[in-house]
């Protein structure tokens, strides 16, 4: 065992490197899928008839809405942690090496722990088979996931050392908390509402004209292609889409700022 001289954390018990390369590969693949879906969606919007069905757009919308959030999560963690992110278990605390330096905390500095585990090949691939969020008294937040070697050992040690600050596995904030749900829902709402605005605009432009309609006497009269009721419904749909888009962007921005501030 390595002795850390003069360190209040005591002896180094074990080291737990993070498989950063897996984050890069998963994030890169998800980014390719998301961008491919975005390109396909743009192509379908440009060539599909304005009055046609929107179902083909799902071919681009689904991979974009699923791929981009995963890519952002994986690549952000890869960049933040650096090439050699490593966790260290000491007799009296936890250490972490990142691209930003080396930090250490005693068990007494642990202010909150939330642990959740998932089973399944997809969760393992994403590193989400383990989700361990740790908050320290200095405001720092640390995220330990399935990409960390023996990450569950770290989680068990944290819970064993500080059971008084550990949230139960069934805690609603750990599973269906509003921010946890919205981080996946908001990007989808943004994509859907933006796509709806594009389709509505194309539809109105394609029908922004007049056509001849015979009256009761057989005379042809010019009438707008879109009736007042149809135009009203289109305006209402556009207003709802704009509100949903702006609100989602604001909430997503707040969520990102809060998380970034909490991890400093």
Topology of helices and strands:
Layout: E1 2-3, E2 11-17, H1 20-47, H2 58-81, E3 86-90, E4 93-98, E5 101-106, E6 110-117, H3 121-126, E7 130-136, E8 141-145, H4 151-161, H5 172-175, H6 178-206, E9 210-214, E10 220-224, H7 228-262
Mean pLDDT: 77
Strand order of the largest sheet: 1-2-3-4-5
Q: Low-confidence runs (pLDDT<50, min 5 residues)?
A: 1-6, 49-53, 170-177
Compute the separation of the termini in Å. 31 Å
Shape: elongated
Report helical residue fraction. 40-55%
Helix segment tally? 7
How many E-type strands?
A: 10
Strand content: 15-25%
- Derived from helix and strand composition plus strand pairing, the structural class reads alpha+beta
Q: Write down the Rg.
A: 26 Å
The description of the largest β-sheet is: 5 strands, antiparallel
Order of helices and strands: EEHHEEEEHEEHHHEEH
How would you characterize this protein structure?
Strand 9 (210-214) and strand 10 (220-224) form a beta hairpin. The protein has helices at 20-47, 58-81, 121-126, 151-161, 172-175, 178-206, 228-262; strands at residues 2-3, 11-17, 86-90, 93-98, 101-106, 110-117, 130-136, 141-145, 210-214, 220-224. It is built from seven helices and ten strands. Helix 2 (58-81) packs across helix 6 and helix 6 runs antiparallel to helix 7. The radius of gyration is 26 Å and the shape is elongated. It is of the alpha+beta class. The strands form three sheets. Strands 1-2-3-4-5 form a five-stranded antiparallel sheet, with no helix packed on it. A three-stranded antiparallel sheet has the order 6-7-8, covered by helices on one side. The chain is 52% helix and 21% strand.
């Amino acid at each position: 065992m390595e002795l850390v001289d003069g360190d209040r954390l005591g002896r180094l018990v074990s080291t737990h490197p993070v498989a950063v390369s897996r984050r890069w590969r998963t994030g890169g693949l998800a980014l390719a899928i998301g961008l491919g879906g975005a390109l396909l969606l743009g192509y379908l919007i440009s060539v599909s008839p304005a009055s046609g069905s929107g179902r083909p757009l799902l071919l681009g919308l689904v991979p974009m809405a699923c791929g981009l959030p995963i890519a952002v999560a994986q690549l952000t963690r890869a960049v933040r942690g650096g090439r050699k992110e490593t966790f260290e278990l000491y007799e009296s605390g936890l250490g972490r090496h990142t691209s930003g330096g080396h930090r250490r905390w005693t068990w007494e500095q642990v202010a909150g722990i939330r642990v959740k585990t998932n089973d399944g090949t997809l969760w393992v691939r994403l590193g989400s088979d383990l989700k361990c969020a740790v908050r320290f008294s200095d405001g720092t937040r640390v995220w330990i996931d399935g990409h960390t070697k023996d990450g569950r050992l770290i989680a068990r040690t944290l819970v064993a050392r500080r059971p008084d600050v550990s949230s139960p596995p069934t805690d609603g904030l750990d599973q269906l908390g509003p921010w946890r749900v919205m981080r996946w829902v908001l990007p989808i709402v943004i994509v859907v509402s933006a796509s709806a605005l594009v389709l509505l605009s194309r539809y109105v432009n394609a029908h922004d004209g007049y056509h001849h309609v015979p009256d009761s006497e057989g005379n042809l009269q010019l009438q707008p292609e879109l009736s007042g009721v149809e135009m009203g419904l289109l305006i209402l749909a556009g207003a709802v889409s704009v509100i949903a888009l702006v609100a989602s962007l604001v909430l997503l921005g707040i969520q990102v700022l809060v998380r970034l501030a909490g991890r400093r």
